[in-house]
Design goal:
Blueprint (H helix, E strand, L loop, with lengths): L9 H29 L3 H27 L1
Length: 69
């Protein structure tokens, strides 16, 4: 019986999984910002915008790391 070849290393899998989570959040965050804005909660808007910027940066870092592997 042949040993099956691993398609992704554990590190690559972990990077891809975390990137998926970041992208899912980014898919939804604009709705969170709109909801907070509709309520007039500018502090919530500010926080979600900051988190969005951070998550975009982190997603790019993970994407770049995945390209290197």
């Amino acid at each position: 019986m042949q040993k099956s070849e691993q398609i992704l290393t554990d590190c690559q899998y972990n990077i891809a999984k975390q990137l998926e989570k970041k992208m899912e959040f980014l898919w939804h965050v604009d709705g969170y910002i709109k909801d907070a804005d509709k309520e007039g909660n500018q502090e919530c808007v500010r926080v979600f915008k900051q988190i969005k910027a951070d998550e975009e940066k982190h997603a790019k870092m993970l994407k770049d790391l995945l390209k290197m592997k």
